[in-house]
Every structure is written in C-alpha cells, then in structure tokens.
Amino acid sequence: MRIDSHHHVWDLGVRPQDWITGEAMQPLLRDFTLSDLAPLAAKTGIDRTVIVQTVADPGETPELLDLAADEEMVAGVVGWLDLESPAVDDDLAGLLGHAHARKLVAIRDLAQYKDDVEWLGRADVISALQLLGRHDLTYDLLTLPPQLPAALQAVTACPDTTFVLDHMSKPYIAAGEIEPWRRAVRALAARPNVACKVSGMFTEADWGQWTTEQFRPYVDVLLEAFGPDRLMFGSDWPVSTLAATYEQVVDVAGQLTAHLSADEQAEFWAGTATRFYGLTT
C-alpha cells in the first residue's frame, strides 16, 4: 500500500485560486482534476490519496467531500475551517453533519499566510484546536520556519489533538539553510502527537536545478527526529509540477528512504498516514 497524503484539485470555473499569482505560477492557472491524477498515481504505485484544501472558502470543503465520496482512490479530505470564528463550533458541526463527513479526516487553516507569526499560540486558536481533538479530527500545520515556535506552543497545549506538519514547514532549501529550522523541527518532533509530511521540497528548492542530494540533509533530520513511523509521503501535486513531474517526486522520496527496512518503508508510505488521519484503506 502506498498513500499520497497531500495533493490538491481545483476547477477554476467553480472557484478562483487567488494564491496563484506572478508569472512563475502561471502553469497552475488551469483545472487539475482527479482524472488528471489517477494515471500518474497508477504509474507510480500510489493506491490511495488525501485531498487537501487550497482556499479559505467555506464552500470548498463540502465540494471536496462530495468529490471524494464516490472516488475509491481518495481515502480522506483535509478541509478548511476558520479557527478564529466565534462560530467555529457551529461551523465544525456543519461539516460533521455533511452526508460524506466520514471522509473528513483533518482540518487546516492557512497559518502560513497569517500576519501574526505567533498566531498558532493565540488562546482562541488553541481552543479551536482542542475542539478538533474532541471530535477526533487531526489538524494540518501549514507553517514557515519562523512559525514553528508557535506551532510547538499549540501542539503542547493540545495533547489530545493530533497534528500533521505540512511540507516539512518549508525549510529554505534553495538557500541551503538548515538552522534554525532543524532545532525547531526537533523540538516539535519531541511531542508524540505530531507527524510530518515529506512533501513540498521541490518548490522550496531551485525549481530548475534541484538534485536529490540537496534534499537528503533535510529528510535525514526528519528521519532522526520523527522516525519513519511519524513521517508520511505527500506529493503536493499539482503545485509540485512547477519543479518536478509526479514520477520524479515519488522517485526522489523512494531514493531518500531506500535505506529503511521494509517495515519502516511501510510506515512511511502508508502506516503513518493511516494512523494519524484515521484512514480506512
């Protein structure tokens, strides 16, 4: 079993993707569907996937749940919720009441784009994160390295909520910087309720000149800090297509984990995602 724990889909005719800006991002300004992804997944041995939200729009998550309902390939959906909303309890109840809520496995708000670097440590945000834990929903941490201390504060304050760190918290690979990201990631990994996606590496490197060996020091940090049983593979398709093909993304992940035992590879490719997202595969 192989699971791609992080990919997106969108239909620009239904909803614009306002985060796609600038000339370099223009290749993403088209529709990307499950029909586009399916042959890529089949070719690379990916059996199941997790769709992740892209925009702060309450209409998107129900649509993703509807899309996932009849798609055997899709094991789960990471939806969006406004954690700052005074109606967050009611908003969550609405999602949990959706006809296909069984495929809602996690929530994320877009912490990366918050002006306040300490946003995840705010009392109202922590209260909402604790609410997710009471409903057995995981929270996806979308952070940049300077936001990791606040992420640690949130994870520590919510021991009954499980967390998944998206995109390794986007270390500055293109610049070759590993500190203070390494120290912050190690501190976060010391908390047993957090796992990490090995995803998003390619767009943090030089899109046209990356090499597998550029990624190895960062993945080695994660392997030492989290262990294979708290790491999971994610493609970040189609954003990753700015720098690599789907096949390249899967292949590089395989190269960087080739030294692991068969049991450890099983955790990386499927076990961690299954446990932290409560997937039925």
Describe this structure in words.
The protein has helices spanning 34-43, 60-69, 88-96, 123-134, 148-157, 181-189, 212-226, 246-256, 262-277, and strands at residues 3-7, 48-52, 74-80, 104-108, 138-141, 163-165, 194-198, 231-233. It has 281 residues and is of the alpha/beta class. The protein has a single domain, classed as TIM Barrel (Alpha-Beta Barrel). It has an 8-stranded parallel beta sheet, sandwiched between helices. Strand 3, helix 3 and strand 4 form a beta-alpha-beta unit. Helix 6 packs parallel to helix 7. 45% of the residues are buried.
Topology:
Layout: E1 3-7, H1 34-43, E2 48-52, H2 60-69, E3 74-80, H3 88-96, E4 104-108, H4 123-134, E5 138-141, H5 148-157, E6 163-165, H6 181-189, E7 194-198, H7 212-226, E8 231-233, H8 246-256, H9 262-277
Parallel strand pairs: 1-2, 2-3, 3-4, 4-5, 5-6, 6-7, 7-8
